[in-house]
Write a structure and sequence with these properties.
With 262 residues, the protein is of the alpha/beta class. It has one domain: Rossmann fold. 37% of the residues lie in helices and 20% in strands. It has eight helices and eight strands; from the N terminus they run ααβββαβαβαβαβαβα. The chain has helices spanning 2-29, 39-43, 90-96, 119-136, 147-158, 173-180, 220-228, 250-260, and strands at 48-56, 59-66, 74-79, 100-105, 141-145, 163-167, 206-211, 232-238. It has an eight-stranded mixed beta sheet, sandwiched between helices. Strand 6, helix 6 and strand 7 (206-211) form a beta-alpha-beta unit. Helix 4 (119-136) crosses helix 5 (147-158). Residues 7-13 have low confidence and may be disordered.
């Protein structure tokens, strides 16, 4: 009887949550957004120009480039978070960095981009996006936020970036699941986004910004990445900002601007 109760308890504690995560992980990990805020591009075509990139047969990604008045001092490529429509976010970026050319593409299934979201697709598309930006503009500074920080790291390991900036990054989806849910075996997680296994491969000095009040990513995770990174230029932790606030906080905006002005 005791053994049976233990087995039932283990099933309730581990097996059922793991199975649920396995089948629902696509919705848990990805949250495609499409905000109807593109009228600005038509109103100011001299500043915001829509882009389109074919990443495979029948799959096109929606993008945009902000071109500052006069000549751009730098080009910045942005990889966004799981709940962002990065294309519509370009207007906010342009207010914070008005002298920088800023480029963003929506991931597959985000905004009006086609295809289906997946870790493999995001990583492969990011390299094609980077190559497109370098060919048509110049070598960019790469900024990654949250899930996009993993995409940015993956890109920086495989391409020569001008600078790399990571905001609100995490070690892996598995580590997040252990912190936010009951423990789920790694074998049940398909889209792993394991930044912890890539961070030490970055050959370019880079920057990382985290907040102790994140509320989504435990602060120990960026600290673990800091310890494993070999080429980090600067690491800063802040108080008073949650996961969604950190990217456009005054402190982080100021630090990013310093890098853009180098």
């Amino acid at each position: 009887m005791v053994t049976e109760l233990i087995i039932v308890g283990l099933i309730l504690l581990f097996v059922i949550p793991s199975v649920l995560v396995y089948f629902l992980q696509h919705k848990i990990i990805f949250a495609p957004q499409h905000y109807n805020r593109r009228r600005l591009f038509a109103e100011f075509p001299e500043l915001y120009r829509p882009l389109e990139l074919q990443v495979e047969k029948g799959v096109f990604l929606e993008g945009v480039v902000y071109e500052p008045e006069g000549s751009a001092e730098k080009t910045m490529l942005y990889f966004g978070g799981r709940e962002q429509d990065s294309v519509t976010l370009i207007a906010k970026f342009s207010l914070h960095y008005p002298k920088t050319r800023i480029i963003a593409f929506n991931y597959r299934a985000y905004g009006t981009s086609g295809g289906m979201a997946s870790e493999e697709a995001f990583h492969g598309d990011a390299l094609k996006i980077f190559d497109y930006v370098q060919e048509h503009f110049e070598m960019p500074v790469v900024l990654g936020y949250s899930m996009g920080s993993n995409v940015a790291v993956h890109t920086a390991v495989r391409r020569e970036v001008k600078e790399l900036l990571l905001v609100a990054t995490f070690t892996s989806v598995h580590a997040l699941s252990r912190a936010k849910l009951r423990p789920v075996p790694k074998a049940f997680i398909k889209h792993r986004f394991e930044t912890i296994n890539e961070i030490e491969k970055i050959g370019k000095p880079f920057y990382m910004f985290a907040t102790r009040d994140d509320g989504f990513v435990p602060i120990r995770q960026p600290r673990q990445l800091k310890e494993k990174a070999g080429k980090m230029v600067d690491y800063k932790e802040y108080d008073g900002y949650n996961h969604g606030q950190l990217l456009f906080s005054d402190e982080v905006t100021e630090e990013i601007q310093k890098v853009l002005e180098k």
